Amino acid sequence: MPEAAAASALVARDGQALRLAAVGVAAHRQGLSAGMTLADARARCPDLATAPHDPVADSRELDRLAGAMIAFTPLVALDPCDGLVLDVTGCAHLLGGEDELVAGVLAAAGYTVRHALAAHAAAARALARHGTGHDVRALPVAALELDERALSGLRRAGLKTLGDLAARPMAGLAARFGEAAVMRLRAILGEAGSPITPLRLAEPIRLETRFPEPLARTDDALDVIEELLTRAARIMEERQLGGRRFRVVLHRSDNVRPRLVVETGQPVRDPAAVMRLLRERIDTLSDPLDPGYGFDAITLAVLGAEHLPSRQIGLESGKEDAEDSIAALVDTLGVRLGEERVSRLVPCDRHLPEKAQGLVPAAQARPAPWPAGGETPPRPLLLLDPPQPVDVIAGVPDSPPQRFRWQGRLHDVCLAEGPERIGAEWWRKRGGHIPGNAGDTRDYYRIEDGKGRRYWIFRSGLFGETPGPRWYLHGLFP
């Protein structure tokens, strides 16, 4: 986690309990550690700031850091879920020595990290995770990362450090604590190999076609681009990838290189879909795509790609066709109007209705699945901002409305469903939860009037705790 002044931690659910998955520097200094329950952590640090743990985002960030480390050594290996192993043999002198190399790596990481240098990977990993010095023999037996039963047996036998284990016969240790303990000990001590599996960066998808005679017609160039897209599609299909960003460079004879760049909201490898976007891009150019004295070469590069498994076409492909049509429409509008002008609603980690979604560029969003036909959404698609006050008549204080007046018109309620109670986000307030302060609590009702029109109405506040709770109309159902 990035270093911050306030104590912070990531929280994950473990069964019925919430536990700390990772802690920041300030939280660690206050005695908090990963695996501790959130209740115990709050007791020690009442001002602890928490956020949900996202293992997928952690994995992506670790992959990004691994890519950044390629600048220092070509041999970078992942040590999931929060570590990297770098083989810097023969690389330190290029940066002025080991100290300069370590400083460069830490600066490129941008995080507060634990690091260690050693002659081999197993020792460096053990020192970084379990030690504070350079002597592997002084490491605790926990550096072997055995199960808790084996570690307890080692401690009961008086073996507290790796040096204590190294002084004992290996055959006896293997017979009593298992072969895994001996193998890991020998690897950390350097008596056994500890090879790493470096990341292999996928070969970029870049295709080029050169012509013995310059192409003088734009249509001929478009035919060549389509052929390049077909070849790129075969490569992406073999790798189970789909392109998100495509760049075409046309090399003219007079050394002018016009470029065409298109992005898609979803990974695609259909040449026809990309060609449609490229033609739209050409139509939006202020200057036409002039071949001049002709094109000597054309290059195609897939700048961004994501995993896209092969999809089997079912007998009922109406849903898939609808989703593909919507994605194609979004991509076309993005090319015509600009990617930043086409937005999509995405869910946010907030339970208040007016804050449960946000607008992001459609090319960056991951569209949510559409509701199946016939399903009635529990909340309306149209929300009023801000909610409009209404006058309500109810049979008893906590019952749903029987009649309400909105915009000067009186509506009789025929059907009502609810309430759905939504509390205030007390954890975002400075004072936290204050018992008896229920002024922001909302009771939502789905109601229908005599003409079949459906509304989403809520009461702000609870009777007996809030003087004079008010009613508001928040949304309209289709």
Automatic annotation (TrEMBL):
Its EC number is 2.7.7.7. It is an enzyme of class 2 (transferase). Pfam families: IMS, IMS_C. Keywords: DNA damage, Transferase. Signal peptide: none annotated. GO terms for biological process: DNA repair. InterPro entries: DNA/RNA_pol_sf (IPR043502), DNA_pol_Y-fam_little_finger (IPR017961), SulA_CellDiv_inhibitor (IPR050356), UmuC (IPR001126). SUPFAM superfamilies: DNA/RNA polymerases. GO terms for molecular function: damaged DNA binding; transferase activity. Residues 11-114 form the UmuC domain. Residues 208-310 form the DNA polymerase Y-family little finger domain. It catalyses: DNA(n) + a 2'-deoxyribonucleoside 5'-triphosphate = DNA(n+1) + diphosphate. Monomer. Poorly processive, error-prone DNA polymerase involved in untargeted mutagenesis. Copies undamaged DNA at stalled replication forks, which arise in vivo from mismatched or misaligned primer ends. These misaligned primers can be extended by PolIV. Exhibits no 3'-5' exonuclease (proofreading) activity. May be involved in translesional synthesis, in conjunction with the beta clamp from PolIII. This is DNA-directed DNA polymerase.
